[in-house]
Amino acid sequence: MELRANAELTFESGALIILILGPALPINGAGAEGGGRLDAESLSAALLELEDEINWDAEAMLDRAVRLERQARLLGNELLATRARLSQANLRMRAGDVAGAAQRIWKVHQWAVDNGARQLTARTHLVWSNIHRHLGDPAQCLEHAVLSVELLDETATDHMRVWHRVKLADALAFSHSIDAARYRFEQAERLAIEYGRQDLRLAVLNNFAYAEYAAGNHEQAERVAQRLQRHAAEHGFELDASLLDTIGLIEIGRGRYAEAEHTLEVCIERHLAGREDDADALPEYLLTLTRAQRGLGAYDRAQASLDACRSLCVERELADVLVRVHQEQAELHAARGEFARAYEVHKLFFTAFTNLHSRQREAQARTRQALFETAEARQEAERFREQARRDPLTGLRNRRYLDEQLPGLIDTDPGLVVAIIDLDHFKRINDQLSHDVGDQVLVQVAKLLETELAAVSKEAFVARLGGEEFVMVMPGRSVAQAAAEFDGIRRAVRRYDWGTLTRGLPVTISIGVAGLAETDSDNLLSLADRNLYAAKHAGRDRVVHRGARAAAA
Questions:
Q1: Which residues pair with 443 in a beta bridge?
Q2: Rounded Cα gap, residues 85 and 299, in angstroms
Q3: pLDDT tens across 222-242, in order?
Q4: How many of the other CB atoms lie within 10 Å of CB of 145?
């Protein structure tokens, strides 16, 4: 069995960082999503391949993710469509469009949070962590990696339980917290063993080995790499090119250049025989081979390997790898004693390095701007969303908010009680004093209702239905208990000093109360409204609920 794993290559202080992102599945454009229509279960399974089994060919997979989103929209399934959009953001990032990924991640995250899609939220934070790693921001990279693990629950796949911890370990290593990273790598490995995911265990060991190597712990890195090789042999995995490159780097770090040269030769042979064709993969392997050959003193072979690497970099416009080609060329001239040539090439390296970092800073700035603009748009959308659910006169929640919230509360709280409130003789205030005074009375009544309700229940809320009508929603109460508390609010309105505002006209309210304990969900508001009508006809300024009446006082 051959493990195909995707290597993400990043230039950082002249080092090659390899992050294995998961075993590949064949992506050939065929299947139902290419032309036929998938049902929800099949579509979810197809998306899971993109989410848990990341492939080398980001462009082909991006096209597949777009097709899957179209299928989800045909089904009217927003969860599946949003999962497809997250895969698109992830694949854009992997294809180098980090700013494009950043622009898309906010909406996916907001939908996931708003709809309680915990697994999707966890996956979103994992992609976000990688975006911040590209930005060179270890603090934010780590913060999102932590959240991606904290959100794991019973809905998480085995792959997520293992891989989110690996990425947390990677983030810790990126933050130079190698002891904490080591603990998370070991935890991920134990889970991979528990779940019988030997392929994931191999990927865990690869990242673990590289983290130790990047931290300068070459002896520890070699021990982990040896475990990786034993594990592959025991379970019939053929080490692919990306894994062999990691092993070769560690052998170079240990000064075993002959072994490293052999490892990299096998690495390149397997790369050429495989179907992977990441543009920078072969140049990276050739560059590592050059380092091994230079360490071995085989300068002619090293120069040949480096020349082949340089040609590919120029042909494929790989500026970041080409910078390290210049650096390696200077090292090779120096090893041969050609110090004048080494100095000239080093100047070329320094210029290329400076230009590369300038381009990287520009790319990071574009990504940060995309994040900022998207955050601004999100905040603006949230502000408008909040405004649309507020009554402009009183500042209370409005009917739209009530219609959105009440069904969920009815479904989850059998002790829910509602009250409909109406101002008594409000027309008289408008007619005798003016509509402006009437508005001022409505505003003050709204403040009293909100303040008094908050004093008896932090979970309750009040909304304006329109005109002089309000509704109060009280969770977790018996109808009688809620009616008594509503009656206290009625009394507070009556006792308020209205003299200055209304010139002696009284302001009172009538309240009709109903609870789920006494009626079904479809009739809850209707029963409260009928009880309000009874309160009006019984003389106003009172609370009425089924089976009992609170007299005015």
A1: none
A2: 49
A3: 999 999 999 999 999 999 998
A4: 29
For residue 28, name the pLDDT band (cuts at 50, 70, 90): very low
CA 331 to chain centre: 42
Is pLDDT at 394 greater than 50 in this prediction? yes
Q: Up-side HSE of residue 56: CA atoms within 13 Å toward CB?
A: 18
How many other C-beta atoms can be found within 10 angstroms of the C-beta atom of residue 366? 14
What's the pLDDT band for 34 if we cut at 50, 70, 90? very low
In whole angstroms, give the CA distance from residue 233 to residue 238. Answer: 8
- For residue 189, give Cα distances in angstroms to 204, 349, 488: 6, 40, 60
Closest CA to 101 of 46, 62, 155: 62
- Spatial CA neighbour of 418 closest among 360, 356, 483: 483
**Tokens coding 478:** 């018996």
| Owner of token pair 């109060």 | 472
Q: How far is CA 419 from the centre of its chain?
A: 39
Classified as helix, coil or strand, 434 is coil
* The two structure tokens encoding residue 184: 């998370």
pTM beyond cutoff 0.85: no
According to the per-residue pLDDT averaged within each range, which of 52-56, 205-209, 352-356, 476-480 is highest?
A: 205-209
Identify the CA nearest to 159 among candidates 128, 129, 126. 126
User: Among 385, 373, 395, 541, which residue's Cα sits nearest to residue 462?
Assistant: 395
What letter would DSSP give residue 2?
B
Which residue, chain included where needed, has tokens 């009656």? 487
Contact by Cβ (8 Å): 83, 112:
no
Burial of 476 (0-12, 13-18, 19+ CB in 10 A): middle
Q: Who contacts 372 (Cβ-Cβ below 8 Å, separation ≥6)?
A: none
CB distance 445 to 507 below 8 Å: yes
- Confidence grade of residue 57 (pLDDT, cut at 50, 70, 90): low
313-327 pLDDT, tens digit each: 888 777 778 888 888
State the DSSP code for 277.
Answer: -
Q: Are 165 and 147 in contact (CB under 8 A)?
A: no
Please report which helix (H) or strand (E) contains residue 472, including its range: strand 469-474
How far apart CA 230 and CA 228 sit, in angstroms, is 6
Higher pLDDT, 439 or 134: 439
Domain over 397-544 is classified CATH 3.30.70.270: yes
Token reading at 117: 């899609």
Q: Domain ranges in the chain? A: 255-360, 397-544
Helices marked H in 394-462: 399-412, 426-433, 435-456
Q: Is the dihedral of CA 140, 113, 364, 84 positive or negative?
A: positive
Q: What does the block give as tokens for 100?
A: 């494009």
Sort strands 548-550 and 15-23 into parallel, antiparallel or unpaired: unpaired
Computed over every residue of the chain, the mean pLDDT equals 84
Amino acid of residue 345: V
Predicted confidence at residue 215, as pLDDT, reads 93
Residue range 381-407: average pLDDT? 80
Assess whether pLDDT exceeds 80 at residue 24. no
